[in-house]
Every structure is written in structure tokens, then in C-alpha cells.
Design brief:
Helix content of chain A: 40-55%
Shape of chain A: elongated
Strand order of the largest sheet of chain A: 2-1-3-8-7-6
Structural class of chain A: alpha/beta
Oligomer: homodimer
Number of strands of chain A: 17
Largest sheet of chain A: 6 strands, mixed
């Protein structure tokens, strides 16, 4: 069992969002480790030592984040060394690393940073490629705090995510795989889907997978806004067969609802597919106000396929920039199937792009009506075959509505690209 | 002392980000309560009961989130009632609330939800305006788990944020202020600033505030991307005077770097100021790809001032939509002061808006050069007096770069509006 301790007074006054928890828990569970508890404490030596002692009484692996910077670490370092019952010694390799770090930045090494080279005797030093504070791994054998007096590992990681994450991947994972291997092996795979709610996804796959679950397959779901993850995992010698069989069933059952396996978000899938097919895209956004373009341009390399777009928040902009006929707006309203189609067609025509996505809707909190309540949107995709709009309803708060609607738009394009690719290469 | 327990197996396999922690910690600390520890455990009755017992041994107030939904709560409910030593009884008001909830949605009340009306005898029921699971507040007097056998409160809140947050504000806060008032009073105020790094903000205010800190003022900083918060707080009878004096000093020292006190983000400040002044805005975005428009349209009521914008990711779009002369792009490059100015001027001219913000830059990871490295951007603001561009450098990852650059653009406009308002009403 693994426990995580996040140290930092800023966590407990709510000034910082704890992203370490999710990141570490996800990495660890995908490697097959079970995290039994996570604790956040202020970064005082007392609080850290107390929480560490408690976690060591339960867990074989305790990971502590933060609390080892140059300003706050003096006492913590002492207390951790005392807890383990060894003295602090200066590690010459760490001294050299710190000096090289500052030399490379043409700065004098601040005197305070030297304390970071003080490590509990016998600890393994984990190299910090992005900062000065090294990570530390301590083997506690026997562990005096644990009922069974088994061996436990205590791993201390630096607080900044850009230092912690690469250190975990390059230094901690190999150590865990060598020193604390998951008994009998572990395999996990995750499918991301969109277009169906969690309970409906569950309804489709639960039955076909029931026998495999009975045989030891771990099956989990995780719902986010307009996205449901299906996670398959199994332990032991039979694990790979179970996961592979289950993965085939999930792929057959959910088919095109799946947009990625093991990682990519929807915008990345869309940009990569467009890149592979050498097609171009523009967007015309009303109620999403730029979010669709923002998501697309978060993907490195988007400029190869994304030509740009229009944020036509006002009716005047829809008419002027996209050539939407004022009569259509008058007749059907700005939030309508006809206007969505005109927006998409106009964006495609003006830009010469292969595809245009258009969105018009009512984000709220005001502006809704009986016929078109808050959360209503029309999403259109224009291709060489013309424009086709769909009506969707996401009656959530403003930001959730915007995300769900942009997700729907991206998925319309993904499904279109899927269809075209299949038609091009039948069989 | 307060402790928070977040329940949910999805937290410990890293499928969900724990946003409750930050939200609750922030609210509680602004009310003057000290959160000493936060713990996340799986949503099994054993784990929840164990963590609750431990927290009750240390804290006067324990807040548990999640674990009371219709599917997982049966055992938890039993265990919590057993822990407190009272039986579960059905609360008729909760039964009625659940039935009304489903009737309003034209749905039959699922049999399972009825279990949510089972509450520990003597518990106060906290109304859930956005769901069926009520919150519960239990006064434990004396608290058998605490060394001092003092009175403790155990408060159980529903898991979904849209249910938890309003319930905390409308039900929990009044209860705390009545039952667990902060001894001697507490006052806190927070300034949000942009335009200066954390260490420089600290350098400016630390000295002038030193005496007040000595007299008991709590002074804290929190740095985010392109934003530094300065938080002032104090307890006791002298607290209000300390905080008010310190606030005046901070306002004098940081002046226009401050964009809000106690809450609003930069986009909200900009939209509200434009609304008050009855001015309109358009945006022309290249490297930020729509983020600026997205942020502006996250603010309810943005449509009164935001006319829309252009995502001119390609050079062709810059020329076609904004009238940027191709010769300017050829001479200076798409990422240049001249092009930023032309984009802003073109956007303002075409739209007839009062202000236009334009951004062109290099988000990376590729596309940089010696003269214009990755992270370089030009941000221009066009007003009736013409367009003026500034060069900025945010050499971070793609998303951080986009946010920091959009923050800079919003702040350019905020500073311009501040200047204009001052000129209009001198003295």
C-alpha cells in the first residue's frame, strides 16, 4: 500500500490547487500500485514528521512532496533523518550539481542552497534535472513504525511540478520497479470516449465484460464533462490476456465512441488526423467565444492544419465576416440551425479550408426562452458536401456549457474524418 | 483546528482532480479558521470511518466531502451514525425534498434515493438546492475521540461541486459563525496584482508592512501565472485596524498593479469596466488562438461589450480579415510590432469597436529564432488615438505562454481604461 503526503501551508489556506495528488495517483495506479491515502499538511517540521510517522505505520511506500526547498527544509531534513535514525551528511555530488546549476545560469550559488546537499546517510539521491533540490529515497529496514516491521521506502520529492514530474518518471519509476515490483505484474489500459453518458457506456460494456471481471479484470469508469474513460487493468500471469481480451471487446462494443487509447485528448486526435490527411480547418464561434480555437491551438503543430477563425459574437459580425444573410437571422434567430449552417458554409468559403466548424448557442445565465432554453446550441460542420448542423443541449454553468459544446464540435469533425478515411480505404 | 476529509476512490487512482480541497480551504481560511490537515481516502465505509475517527481526535471541526450518494452511502451512513452513537432515522422533510426534486424534473423517484433520507438522529439537515443528497451537521458533545473531550462538529457534504459549494455558503457558514465563532474576530483581504513577479511585489510591500507584521498582521503571497496575490489578515480586537492600515499601504505601494480586491479575475474586471463605460471591444488573436476571446466570454454579460474577434492564425487570414499589408509581413515578419499594430488597427476599423486588442507571437515548441525566441509576442491595443504595441517574452510551455500573453493583453486594456477614467474625472 502506498501513501502520499503533500506538504505546503499554501495548500491548507487554499491558495494553491494540489495537482500533485492526481498526477502521482494516476501514475502509481497505472503502474499497479494502490494508493490508500493522501494527506496534506502544513510545511512545518512537526506536521511533516507526524504525518510521515503515521503513514509509515501503514504503508510500504510513502511519497512526500515539497518541504525540501532551501528556505524551509532545514528542520524537515533534520527531523526526517532523526525519524529514520541516521545522521545528515553532505553529498559532494549534490554540491557539484547545485554549483553547476547556477554556473550554467551565470549566477553565483546562493549560500542557502548548500543546505540542500545535506542528505540522510545512506539515502539514494534522485537527480533533479530542472532545479537544485535533489529527491531522496530512503530504505527503512526494518520499519520501526509498522506493525509487521517490514521494509518500507520513504521517497521525498521537490515541490515544483516541473521538477517533480520528470524526476518521478526517470528516477522513481525504475527504483520502484526494481525495489518494490508489483507482485505478478500489472497491465492497465484506458479508453477515452465521448458522445455517451457514463451510465450508458457502462450499460453497453458491463455485460460483455462480466465474465472477465469475474476472472479478475479490474473495470473502472471515470466521467468528465462530455468524456467518459473506461479503464481496464489486471494483475498476475493471466493479466495481459485478460486486458487484451477486454480491450478487444470494448473496441467492438463502443466502436467510434472511442477517440483515444492511453492518453490523447480530443483536440490532439483531431489535429493529428487532419495533419495526416493534409486537410485544413477553420472555426466560426459565437457562444464558445474562442474556446474551440483555443483548444485546437493548444496542440503543438496545429498551425499546419488550422487556418484560423472568427469569433462572431455579435450578429453584425456574423453578417459581415461570414456572409450570414440578415434575413436568416431575422427569420430563425441567431441561435438556429440555419444560422449555424450559414456560419460554417461562410467560414469555409471565405477561407478556402477543407472543413469549417461553426457554433451558435445560448451560454446563459440569461437569454434563454421556452423554445430555446439556456444551454441550447447548434453545431455545424461544413465539408465539400455542404453544411450540416446538429442541435445539442448542455444546460450547465457557462464554462461547462462552452466546453461540452466545443467537445461536440470537435467530435463531429473526428467522426467525419473517420467516415471519410474508411470510405477511402474500404476493407 | 479544522480537518477536511475528501472521500472518493477516483481521487486515489488519479482520475479526478480534488478541487474541493482548495475551495474549502480558501473559504475556511478567509473566515479565520485554520485547516490543519486534509486527507483523501477511498469511499469505503471502513476507510471513511477510520479517517473520521482520527480527525475527530485532533479537530473541533471535521468536514467530510462525498460518500453519501445513493449508491455508496448505505454503509457509510451506518458507520457514521454508529461512530456518533445514535440510530439512523428517516427524515420526512428530506423524503419530501427528494420527491419534489424528481417531480420537478418529471421523473419517478428512484427507490435507491430514499436511503438519502436516513439521517443520524439529532443531526441537522443541510438543504441541497441542486441535488437530492442532503448535507448533515452533527454536534458531538462531548467528543469521545478527543483528548480534551471538548465539543466537536462533524459536517458531511455531498460530492458534486455544484451541490457542495452553494450548500457550504448558505448552510455551513451561518452554522459555523453561530456555533464555532472565531475567537476575537478575524479579518482578511486579498489583492490581486499583475505586471510584477512575486519577489518584486514582496520587495515593495515587505518593508512598509514590517511594523504591522510585528504587531500581528498576517502577510502572505501567492504567485500564479502572471498574477500575484497579496493577502492581509489579522485576528483580535486590533485586527480590523491592522488590516485596514495595511490595505492602504498596499494600495499606495502597488497602485495600478492591483486589479482587484477580494475576488474578481482580470477578465471580469475588464468586462465590468467596459460595461460601466459603455465601450466595446474586439480581439485579433494569432498565437493565443482564441484564448483571449474565451476568457472574455467566460464573464456573464460579456455580450454587452464584446463584439467578437478574429483568430488569424495564418498570414492569409491576417491580410484578408484585418487588412494587414502583405509587405509589412514580408518586411518585419508575422511576429512583429508592425504586424501587431496593423492587426489591432484593422480589427478596430472593420468592427467599429472602441478598442481592439491584437496578439501575435511564437508559442513554440518550434518556430523560434535568435532574434525572436519561442515565447516572444507582440501585444497591441488600438484606441481612437491609434495602435500601440508592446513586446513581451514568456518562455514557458505552450499553454502557460498563451495564458500569460492573454493576461498581458487584458491588462493593457485595463490600464488604458484606468488612465482614461482618471483623465475624465481629475481630482
Amino acid at each position: 500500500m502506498v501513501e502520499i503526503i503533500n506538504t505546503g501551508s499554501e495548500l491548507l489556506i487554499g491558495r494553491t490547487l494540489n495537482t500533485h495528488q492526481q498526477w502521482l495517483c494516476r501514475r502509481l495506479s497505472d503502474l499497479g500500485y494502490t494508493v490508500g491515502r493522501q494527506t496534506a499538511v502544513p510545511d512545518t517540521a512537526d506536521a511533516i514528521a507526524q504525518a510521515t510517522t503515521e503513514s509509515l505505520s501503514r504503508a510500504e511506500l510513502v511519497i512526500v512532496t515539497g518541504g525540501l526547498g532551501p528556505t524551509s527544509d532545514d528542520l524537515t531534513r533534520d527531523r526526517i533523518a532523526a525519524l529514520v535514525g541516521v545522521p545528515l551528511v553532505e553529498d559532494p555530488a549534490v554540491v557539484a550539481h547545485i554549483e553547476a546549476f547556477f554556473t550554467a545560469r551565470k549566477r553565483v550559488t546562493p549560500a542557502r542552497t548548500r543546505v540542500q546537499a545535506q542528505v540522510p546517510q545512506g539515502a539514494r539521491v534522485l537527480t533533479n534535472s530542472h532545479g537544485t533540490a535533489p529527491g531522496l529515497a530512503l530504505k527503512i529496514s526494518p520499519n520501526p513504525f509498522h506493525r509487521d516491521r517490514t521494509t518500507s521506502w520513504l521517497i521525498l520529492l521537490p515541490g515544483p511540478p516541473r521538477e517533480l514530474r520528470p524526476m518521478f518518471d526517470t528516477e522513481v519509476v525504475p527504483l520502484l520497479q526494481h525495489e518494490l515490483p508489483v507482485a505478478g505484474g500489472y497491465l492497465a489500459t484506458t479508453f477515452k470516449t465521448t458522445g455517451l453518458g457514463e451510465s450508458l457506456v457502462e450499460e453497453r460494456v458491463a455485460d460483455p465484460l462480466a465474465q472477465l471481471v469475474h476472472a479478475g479484470l479490474e473495470l473502472g469508469y471515470c466521467a468528465r464533462v462530455s468524456e467518459v474513460e473506461v479503464r481496464l487493468a489486471a494483475r498476475g500471469a493471466d493479466g495481459p490476456r485478460l486486458v487484451e481480451t477486454a480491450a478487444r471487446i470494448v473496441q467492438e462494443t463502443l466502436g467510434p465512441l472511442i477517440f483515444s487509447q492511453n492518453g490523447n485528448d480530443l483536440e490532439t486526435v483531431v489535429v493529428r488526423t487532419l495533419t495526416r490527411l493534409r486537410r485544413t480547418l477553420v472555426v466560426a464561434e459565437s457562444c464558445t467565444g474562442g474556446l474551440l480555437g483555443h483548444r485546437i491551438t493548444n496542440v503543438p503543430g496545429a498551425s499546419a492544419v488550422f487556418l484560423g477563425g472568427w469569433i462572431t459574437y455579435s450578429n453584425a459580425a456574423k453578417v459581415r465576416d461570414l456572409g450570414v444573410p440578415p434575413a436568416t437571422i431575422d427569420a430563425d434567430g441567431a441561435v438556429s440551425e440555419a444560422v449555424a449552417n450559414e456560419m460554417a458554409a461562410g467560414a469555409r468559403r471565405t477561407s478556402g479550408a477543407d472543413y469549417a466548424l461553426a457554433i451558435t448557442g445560448i451560454a446563459g445565465p440569461s437569454g434563454g426562452s421556452e423554445a430555446k432554453p439556456v444551454g441550447t446550441a447548434f453545431v455545424a460542420l461544413a465539408t465539400s458536401a455542404g453544411a450540416k448542423a446538429r442541435r445539442v443541449l448542455h444546460p450547465y454553468d457557462r464554462e461547462t456549457f462552452k466546453f461540452a459544446t466545443s467537445q461536440y464540435a470537435l467530435d463531429m469533425l473526428r467522426r467525419e474524418l473517420l467516415r471519410e478515411t474508411r470510405e477511402e480505404s474500404p476493407g
